[in-house]
Amino acid sequence: MFSKQVILDVIKSLPNKYAFLEEFLIRFDLDNKIDTTGLKTAQIKLAITRYLIVNQNEKDQLGNNILLKIIEERLNNYLIPYKYDEYECSFSSYPELYSYLRYDGYDIQNGKLVRTLPSNIGSSEKESQITALLIKYGFITTKGHLDSAKSSYSNSNYPSLTAQLRTYVESLFMDMAKHIKNKDTFCVEIQNISPTNAIRAMQVLAKCSNPIILKELNEWDGGGKQTFIEGFWKTLHTLGSHPGIPDTDEALFRFQLVLLVTYNLLKRFEKFYE
Q1: For residues 169 and 201, what is the distance between their CA atoms, to the nearest angstrom?
Q2: Helix, strand, or coil (residue 84)
Q3: Per-residue pLDDT tens for 138-180?
Q4: Which of 126, 29, 13, 135 is nearest to 80 (CA)?
Q5: Per residue in 245-262, pLDDT tens?
Q6: SS3 262
Q7: Do residues 165 and 236 touch, judged by C-beta distance below 8 A?
Q8: pTM, whole model, 2 decimals?
C-alpha cells in the first residue's frame, strides 16, 4: 500500500485541464470506475485520489496494478525529471513526497523510482491497522504519540521523531499491560506488578496467562540477557529519547522497525484480550 500523502501529491501534480484528466482516466482504465459528470477539474482530481486510496489493489484489463502504474508513470516522467532536487532529496512543489515514498519502501536512484523494501513490509498498511486497534481499545494517548511521530517524520524533524517513537512504545506497553491486568485477574504472577514504565509493563506482557511477549521466541528473559524485545527497547533510548541527531536512513529504520514490532504485538494482544 501507498500512504495517502503519496497518492494525494501524485494526483495533485496532474494538470488542471479537463481533456487531460479525461484522457488520463481512459489510459489507466478508470473511466468506467469514476463518475466525473458535472465535476470541475479540481473535483475530478479529488475523486481520483479518493478512489485510489480505497482501491489500491485494483487492476486494469491487462492485470496491472493501476495505482502502481500511475505513480511510476507520474514520478518517472514528470516529477523526478522536473521537480526533484537530488542534492536536497526533495520535490520542489511537494516537500513531503520524498519522505513518504521512503516510508512506503521506495527510493529514487539514477532518476527513477525503485523499490527498496519487500512489498509485504507494508509500513502504511500496518500503521493504519495499528491506528484502528489503538482506537478500538481506547488507547488514545498512545495514538497521539504515534500521530506525533508521523508528523515529525513528514517534517524531517528526526530528533523529535525518535523521542516520540520511544514514548509511543512505552505508552503502548503500559496500555496493553493495564488492560491485561483488568482482564487477567486470576493470574498470580502479575497481580503485584504495577506497569508504571516500559520495563514493568514488559513483565506483565510476558507473565500473563496468554503472553504477548514470548520467552520461547527469545523475546524476553527478565534476567538481564539481551533478548529481542528488551534489545528493541534499548535501541530506542540508548542515551535518552534521541541520542544525537539521526540521519534520514536511521530515522526511517527506527520508524519502520517500531511499526513492525508493535503491529505484531498488537495482533497477539487482540487475539487473546478482546
Answers
A1: 11
A2: strand
A3: 999 999 999 999 888 888 888 888 889 999 999 999 999 999 9
A4: 13
A5: 566 788 888 898 999 999
A6: helix
A7: yes
A8: 0.76
